[in-house]
Amino acid sequence: MDVHGGDEVGAGVRPGLDGLLVDPSIPRDWDGFEVQRIWRGATDRISVLNPVRCPTGVASLVVDGSPGEPIPARTTVEVTVTVG
């Protein structure tokens, strides 16, 4: 599922002082979704995975291949969030 525009707040993606924060809350029956947004001139591609069908909580967050949060403002950022 792709989420765009104003839906990013419902997807748990919100700006913080040092970067983007991700804390999704999704239905148990979703296996995940993707969000792409532009923030502070950066393109953020965020994939949220829900392998254990848990509606809330971040089990892991990987930014450009390394653990980390918040998501820094860069030119392009690839983020994978696992819910659990």
What can you see in these coordinates?
There is one protein chain. This protein is mainly β and 84 residues long. The chain has one domain: Maltose phosphorylase, domain 3 (Sandwich), CATH 2.60.420.10. The chain contains no helices and eight strands. A hairpin with a 2-residue loop joins strand 4 and strand 5. The protein is elongated, with a radius of gyration of 12 Å.
- Count of domains: 1
Largest sheet: 6 strands, mixed
CATH class: Mainly Beta
Structural class designation: mainly beta
Provide the CATH topology: Maltose phosphorylase, domain 3
String of helices and strands: EEEEEEEE
- Straight-line N-to-C gap: 19 Å
Number of helical regions: 0
Q: Give the full name of the CATH homologous superfamily.
A: Maltose phosphorylase, domain 3
Mean pLDDT: 78
Low-confidence stretches: 1-6
* Strand line-up of the largest beta sheet: 1-4-5-8-6-7
* Helix proportion: under 10%
